[in-house]
Design goal:
single chain, 354 residues, alpha/beta, TIM Barrel, 8-stranded parallel sheet, 13 helices, PEP-utilising enzyme C-terminal domain-containing protein
Length: 354
């Protein structure tokens, strides 16, 4: 089992978050499409071009020993019309974060979901029929994702809401339906010659035991749907709430392929006020994780992460997922911070991509 294999791995490989081809760019390369911070953008772009002929086509989480981790500004949310699907063999700098519960907000799915949740235990046949319709809608949504630019590489969270959390049986059933829909759509895409990649995020585990159970569940659905080969290649991460215990986060990092600290889990006070508390929580989590796995890929998501970008960069986080409203500003700030770091410490900041 993959969990056991990861625990037994030695320090032969170090990880790099979301490596890709070509040139797996750090934040700032994407910034080159705007006219701001031109010197930093030009430097990043030139470096990406120099490395283009030497990169592999695999998208992995592994980096060469001794390299400094790049800080990535990645996309969050579906339907960004400014991002186009690249030609075959050309991949984005990292995945786009897709939240599974977003699909439940679409009009037709929302109505079906409400009807399904309102079915009582004495209506199993009715509930099953509605669930089948939900599955087909989810599969259509997954197919649309894989055909879009976001589907080149997507990190998809399993659906999770407060309403579902209060009904664990319904939560597990809906997550099973979503996973089946995603894997079935991926299999169909592969048979048609597609090269999309779907990574999964288990939502809000509070302990190693909880994450291990979620991981085993995801791997089980993958093996039943696609077979052992795909299940072994599927990357499974943990979406952590900011109030997760640092010790628990460190233990989860032992068997997670990557971690995302989700500021959206506590967005009661979005803005600069939320950013300070989020940065402090991230520092505690990151320190605990680095003690266990120094090269682990640890990112952040949600509006507080974008507002706290400078602090997250300073403590050494791998990067942030940003929605459309925050991404331009985040790219500008990340490009400036990285450019300044290169001027002050040219040797330490000269890390590259495989």
């Amino acid at each position: 089992m993959k969990v056991e294999r990861q625990q037994n791995e030695g320090p032969k490989y170090e990880e790099h978050p979301f490596q890709s081809d070509p040139g797996g760019r750090a934040a700032g390369a994407e910034m080159s499409q705007s006219a701001s911070v031109a010197s930093a953008a030009a430097e990043f772009l030139a470096e990406g071009d120099r490395r283009k002929s030497n990169v592999s086509t695999s998208r992995t989480y592994i980096r060469r020993p001794g390299e400094r981790q790049a800080f990535l500004v990645l996309r969050e949310g579906r339907g960004d019309g400014t991002v186009r699907r690249e030609p075959p063999g050309v991949y984005p700098a990292g995945p786009c974060l897709i939240r599974g519960e977003e699909w439940l907000h679409e009009p037709e799915l929302s109505a079906l979901y409400s009807r399904w949740m309102s079915c009582g235990d004495e209506e199993p046949v009715q509930a099953e029929r509605i669930l089948q319709r939900i599955y087909h809608r989810l599969r259509a949504a997954a197919a649309d994702l894989l055909e879009s630019a976001d589907g080149v590489w997507a990190a998809v969270t399993l659906p999770y809401t407060a309403e579902l959390a209060a009904r664990p049986d319904r939560l597990a059933t809906l997550q099973d339906a979503q996973l089946g829909a995603l894997f079935a759509a991926a299999l169909h895409s592969q048979r048609l010659g597609g090269d999309s990649r779907i990574d999964l995020l288990a939502p809000y585990p509070a302990s190693l035991e909880e994450f291990a159970a979620q991981r085993e569940f995801i791997e089980g659905v993958a093996e039943q749907t696609l077979g052992h080969a795909y299940a072994a290649a599927c990357r499974i991460g943990a979406l952590l709430a900011p109030d997760v215990g640092p010790a628990a986060a460190g233990e989860i990092a032992r068997i997670a392929d990557f971690l995302v600290l989700d500021g959206a889990a506590e967005e009661a006070a979005p803005g600069e006020n939320a950013a300070e508390g989020f940065a402090q929580a991230a520092a505690g989590v990151l320190a605990a994780v680095r003690r266990v796995r120094p090269a682990a890929a640890v990112l952040a998501a949600g509006a507080p992460a974008a507002y706290a970008l400078a602090d997250l960069y300073e403590i050494g986080l791998s990067g942030v997922f940003c929605g459309a409203a925050q991404r331009t500003d985040a790219l500008l700030r990340a490009a400036c911070l990285t450019w300044i770091a290169r001027q002050e410490h040219p040797d330490a900041a000269a890390g590259g991509w495989q």
